[in-house]
Amino acid sequence: MAAFNKELARKYLQAFDFRNLFVEALGWGRNENRIDPIKLDGESYKIEAIADQEGVQIFLVHPGKNGQIPITPHRSRLHVQIRKQAHEHLLIFVDAKQEKQLWNWFNREDGRRVSRSLEFNRQQSGELMLQTLQKFSFSFEQAGNLNILDVTGRLRSAFNKDKVTKSFYTKFDKERKAFEKLITGIDDAHEQSWYVSVMINRLMFIYFIQKRGFLGNGDIDYLSERLKYAKKNLGKDSYYRRFLCPLFFEGFAKPESDRSKKMNELLEQVPYLNGGLFMKHQVEQHCGEQIDIPDKAFDKLFAFFDEFKWHLDETAIVNDKEINPDVLGYIFEKYINQKQMGAYYTKEDITGYISQNTIIPFILQRMKEQCAVAFEKGGSVWKLLQEDPDRYIYDAVRKGVVNEDGGIIPEDTLPDFVKIGMQDPEKRMFEKRYNLGLVGDELGLPTETWREYSERRQRCLELREKLSRGDLHEINDLITYNLDIRQFMQDVIELAGGTDLIKACWIALHGDHTAVHRGEVSLGITVLDPTVGSGAFLFAALNVLQPLYDACLNRMNDYVSDKHAAGKPFLGDEKFFEQVLDNIAQHPNREYFILKSIAVDNLYGVDIMDEACEICKLRLFLKLVAQIDDVGKIEPLPDIDFNIRAGNSLVGFANEMDVKRALQPIGGNASFDFEDELPAIKDAASNVDQQYRKYRNLQVQTGVSALVFSDEKEKLIVALSNLTNKLNQYLARQYKVDPDNTVEYLKWKTKHAPFHWWAEFHGIVSKGGFDVVIGNPPYVEYPRGIKEYKIINYDTLKCGNLYAFIIERVSNLVSTTGIDSMIVPLSGHSTIRMNPLINKHYCSNCQLFIINLSADAHPSVLFNGVNFRLAIYLRARTTKYQQVRTTSYLKWYQDEREDLFTSKIMFALHKEHQYDNCIPKYGDRHQISIDSKLKDGNLRFGSQLKRKSDYNVYYKKTGIAHWFTITLEPPKYINNNVVGNSTREAVMPCKDEQIMNLAFALFNSSLFYIYYIMNTNCRDFNPGDVKDFPISKSILELNFKSINESLWNCLLENSKMIPTKHSIAGSVTYQQFQPSRCKAIIDELDVRLAEALHMSKHELDYICNYQLKYRMGKSALLS
To answer: Which of 366, 558, 840, 1051 shows its CA 20 to 30 Å from the CA of 451?
Structure first.
């Protein structure tokens, strides 16, 4: 095939002739693989092999007996079954009439398999589909030089479309505001805004399910058609009052048999959904019959909605007119001013990394407590790593090192200068081809240099050897060595053990249903996001938990089926499994049951913004409904109002100790008595928990009437309200607000929105706390950035930022065996003012992991909108010992972003755990050794400075990226034609000329750059960074005068005047220096400094080439 023949491809595509499409039009090979029909829930699916290209196989899945394309859960399970015989594959689903195609590929993203799909029907021209097919077509010449990574790379490019529809969220904000203006009857502005979110969320939910054909006898335009009906038959502006309210509170809230005949005629066929979404909201309860919305508000909103295609399929968006549930998170990002609140929408690979490395280690630890033998060194769990190391090393680490057959790519095939450089630090030290030469696509990752490849190769082979020897046999090793923890967890369930291991995993996930017979409460894993936003982290958690539930149930089913086949009695664990499976069999849809269980039992979130909570709940509801294909099999939605809560995470009582403290007399003038109050409060809290557990248990039962749901919810609301009202009064007194002063008290309560964790989640908090806490807290200065409320009783108040307070709050919410992880500003462990956070919370009875990230450019951003250097911390509680592991300060070009969390995460273990103002950013042994040798110096550079001097060195103190601006004269600066000095410049007044020369050399060196990166916030060059720099006597004796002359001349020659405009300063022209052009001279400085400090050749090589490709810039890279 010389070139892609579009018309030939169109012919085969429209004829559903897939074998000729791939072989004749796309240049793939034939596939002779045979897979037996796969049976799922009574359906049998015939699998036909179509094509193959370097191990990536294409299969056609014929429809089941209903003639339709399988529903999403069945498609996912078919992928799992086929993956056992064809690891990399693409499935094409068709209907019996050959009118529709759905192309489905599972891509490996962020450590998990993500479904990506494309749809085609015979009536379409196929133009969009053909554009996609062209991306994975191959010429004959190409086909002879491919490997599996090339093919999967083509598929990834074809299927990964941008799922954010800018046209939607831009217009959405406008339509939302217009809708809000038309609502009447709500006097409070906050309540009006909140109710808009509630209403639009309900309507969007209905739009999704109507397009699935679930309403009005399959009417996909149900809302619009009923609006026309209302205008014609119910009177002007009657749609909201006489149709929507009955739909919400009668139709969706009650089974059809409980509705009147008249109501069923009005609504036509609608399913009983229940769930908090269609119970009266508190704004509706408060404002009652006053609320009204004219018909024209809905005309305009529906016209906007109808511009888009709404579908529940959890696949990639392929054009800018499609909307699926994932888009809702982006809507939240745009229309709520969350950036002013310090909140950001976090990318999926970040939420995925944090979720998997907290949830899975916690579950494994729970399993280990019950099945210790399996987790011993050499036990069945760790043998998985030993028997197939490559399975758990990410593809990005193995690329160009280990081939698809498991063989090591020989070193002999590498260029000579690479082979020499890998062995000799002196030969590679200044070899540009080694340090800045690009490896290329065949062996390397995007923009990878030979130095980086060599380091990755060594790391991969060493890790492979460790795994093969069985050296890794601790749960935290999975994090330390950044292994594919999801694949490992899946294999532990499917391959590693017997019934005891499966039972232990299920109980860790879902709790023990037999505990109730022993008078005990057994909870599954509890996962909290205390600043939940639109739910990005909870959805990441759900994506980790769902396949684990599914794998456990599959294993249980295998055991039970074997027992049935053998005709043997059920005893012990098998009896437990049978009870679990019998319970699930009462539900019409297993996937729905799994997701509902996770939503009700495992996930919890709190946010100060009501709108955020509403969208989070809506997304969870849509996730559930997406599992249903038959309207007759819809179960009532769960009520997750008590899982996802609105309130101020920082204001309120976290635990019983907080309550006791509030009840203690203040200055001997307490107006209430501790002994009298506490028992009653504890009883009330226990009562709330009992009411909650009773209501929660109703959620997973079948056949519960709407009236019972409503009554039990009302009891819970009343009990919780009475308790929180009492606690609010106690808290108000701590704020010196008198609860009897109604005006002041209500004003305080409205502004502070107190949230009492001890009351709202009493069952969890009273038993020690949440198992896993994850999230992205607000980055807002306090008190400067927060005028609405006041924070009291925090150890970290002096840190002056909300994220520090959140971390402290989390310390009081997570259990003593729990794990918490968040993405926060890097300054949290790198600045003086954060000492309380560092010493009391980061370094306190835990195993601490910190990933250090250059996240706001220099050279690329981590996610849009953020203007901070960032860090991901992970704390695993332990009473045994303190351990600290960190990465180096990670940088990346945008081309490298996709592999960031699979290829660049390397932790170094700290030897010391006592820190003054900073937890150093070590990532390898060289950094630890270099920093140690520097800090052996018994002097600080500040001892060589004076208040004023004639021997000055000048430096720029802000905007540090890859180089410092260190000069012997003040940089030229002209402001509105007046010569002066920039406020961004500072001076080092040295005590004599020799120290001036030393300062100029020292602070221009790469050695100081490494020290700065390891020991500061990586953003500002503060006077303290100069004064605290450690020096030794041997450094003081160095003479750099001649080298400095060359360096200064080079800096001047490579400087230029840059004109700019400032909004305040006006016209400014300043002198810009380019130290990168003087790198060869700077290397001479580092050679002298390394000799004085007795650095090894390896350490000098490391210093001279530290972050070289980023410091020198992309233009310096050699092809």
So the answer is: 1051
